[in-house]
Here is the input.
Amino acid sequence: MCGRGMKAILLGNTRVELYSTDATPRGVQLMHGEYLTQNCSCRIRDAACLGCGNVVGYHVTRPCGRCLEACNNGHFWMFLSEGVLGEDRIDPTGTKPLRWASLPRVEKDREELAETSERRETLCR
Here is the structure.
């Protein structure tokens, strides 16, 4: 689904672990209309896998003021930990996991994302 995801904790409920990303993922479709979250005034839409049809997370379409003012990383695509399987992305040396601080900006990372998207898309089928 995404080559730029990272493990995260939901700001509105720190007991919820998930994955988040700053890049629009491939292989997902927004479902239904917007609705309010339970813990704040953010508006979200469910995101479903185009391969299997299961809801795998959601997209924050309109973050609320409280969340925008809180310490956040600008990630508005969230994947439920029970809906996806995380996999470490390896650094250019091929020997250790790539750390978020070393990840290229999303604009420069498009080529790497395109090269690995085909393999990720086949994982749910």
Observations:
- Residues 110-122 form the longest helix (13 residues).
- Helices lie at 65-69, 110-122.
